[in-house]
Design a protein that fits this description.
Blueprint (H helix, E strand, L loop, with lengths): L27 E4 L4 H7 L3 E9 L2 E8 L2 E6 L5 H13 L4 E10 L9 E8 L3 H4 L8 E2 L2 H13 L5 E7 L15 H12 L5 E3 L2 H10 L3 E11 L4 E2 L4 H24 L2
Parallel strand pairs: 1-4, 1-5, 5-10, 6-8, 8-9
Antiparallel strand pairs: 2-3, 3-4, 5-9, 6-7, 6-10, 10-11
The chain binds 1-O-phosphono-alpha-D-ribofuranose and uracil.
């Protein structure tokens, strides 16, 4: 059977995500940007199995308390994140939780702090294909609630935040690039005048595209850096593991509840 250009799936397998034929994914999937974080997440799950890697998409499955949890990296930015979301939704995933890093803008958020994403300010291109730019990007209440509950049970006290998701890490996030220092500084000043607590590159896409596809959506981010104090967390691994433990606990709770209501 020939692949269709309009709908290039073959034998139930998508063109991008590396899923073996016949494999069924759990209802809830964690979405790190960095493919290396899939294996880190595997370290906090039971019976972790790597299903494969294609391009920036690294996919694995495991369990928490007997409940299945998938982990799929999205790569950096909106376009690859959109691909992951559409293919995961068609593979049966119903809830997605971004598990990423961010640069904190709010002075009260220190490097290493955990943050539950409630909203994302919209600037990206991929999400605009799915919902008019005026449509707010919001996390599903039950995902945010599950993340806060899971954080408390892991001894964490995350901040609730609004994040700006940006398609550019350097000048777009106000970082000086040779010859473009003034432009980057003006951009940073403009961002600082907005009511956002941090910057990442995928939350908007997860919230908007995921919601348009009918998924429950949310995110937990760890501050890798503070733009307010210009600090950068060099020993980043422990903070990522704390975030992943919270996300995995929440994913299992959401997955258990969705299995019970099926
Ligand atoms: O920590 P992850 O999920 O990789 O995401 C953050 O890190 C990348 C930039 O270094 C961007 O993708 C940003 O959103
Ligand atoms: O500063 C940062 C850190 C992580 N991710 C970003 O997008 N920006």
């Amino acid at each position: 059977m020939a692949r269709s250009a309009a709908d290039p799936w073959l034998n139930g397998r998508p063109p991008h995500l590396p899923i073996p034929e016949g494999e069924r994914l759990p209802a809830v999937c964690l979405l790190p940007g960095d493919p290396a974080r899939v294996d880190r997440a595997g370290g906090v799950l039971d019976d972790f199995r790597l299903l494969g890697q294609n391009r920036e998409f690294r996919l694995g499955v495991g369990h928490v308390g007997g409940v299945g949890v998938a982990v799929c990296s999205t790569g950096i930015g909106g376009p690859s994140t959109e691909i992951a979301l559409v293919e995961l939704a068609r593979l049966g995933v119903g809830t997605v939780i971004r598990t990423g890093g961010m640069g904190a803008l709010a002075a009260h958020i220190a490097p290493g702090d955990l943050c539950v994403v409630t909203t994302a300010a919209r600037e990206g291109g991929a999400a605009a294909c799915y919902a008019d730019p005026a449509t707010p990007a919001r996390s599903s209440t039950d995902v945010s609630t599950a993340l806060r509950t899971a954080a408390a049970s892991n001894g964490e006290a995350p901040h609730d935040i609004g994040v700006l998701s940006c398609d550019s890490y350097y000048v777009g996030e106000g970082r000086p690039v040779p010859g473009l220092e003034a432009r980057a500084a003006a951009r940073l000043a403009a961002i600082e005048s907005r009511a956002v607590d941090g910057m990442d590159m995928e939350c908007e896409t997860v919230l908007v595209v995921g919601a348009a596809l009918g998924l429950r959506v949310g995110g937990i981010l760890v501050a890798h850096a503070s733009r307010a104090t210009d600090q950068w967390l060099e020993d980043y691994e422990p903070a990522q593991l704390r975030m992943l433990r919270v996300a995995a606990t929440a994913a299992a709770e959401l997955g258990r509840a969705s299995t019970e209501t099926r």
